[in-house]
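Aggregate trends can hide what the representation actually does to any particular protein. In the encoding step, the backbone of a single protein was reduced to a row of integers, each denoting a local shape. The record that follows shows the chain in one-letter code together with its fold in token form.

***
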Amino acid sequence: MPGTPIDRPIIISGGSPLTMQQKHGWLRPVDHRTIVPESPDSTVTSVEVNSDGIQLQSLPFAGEQCGISFTFGDVHLAVQTDPKGQNLRIVALDGTNFGKHFQYEAGRFESISASPGLVFHNLCIHKGAVTHCIEPASGHTEIKIQYL
């Protein structure tokens, strides 16, 4: 049963390995390149990026299209919504295949290859027509997507 956005964020964690988790789980992958969270038609309300406990970016959303794109090692991903900030999905870019790069275990996707020292690169948050790019941080970086 859907809860409030506070109790069900999507968390993309840039430790090694890269993980993507959501408290209430994921629907089955749409195809080999796309996964969706439970309640994909919910609306994104905010995106936060933190590194070693320091907030690098925090953006509120109120019905705007949300997009997040990044590279982590050899994985290229994008979080996408429709123009109203709904129908959230995570898409593997550049031919990346979830089955090739991730395993699903205990309610989370975890990258198969784990190399020490990997960080997010080309991390950008798209809010409507405005793009906010974040410099790579050397510490443990986490992207938190709240939605209701």
In short: The first helix runs from residue 98 to 101. Residues 5-147 form one domain.
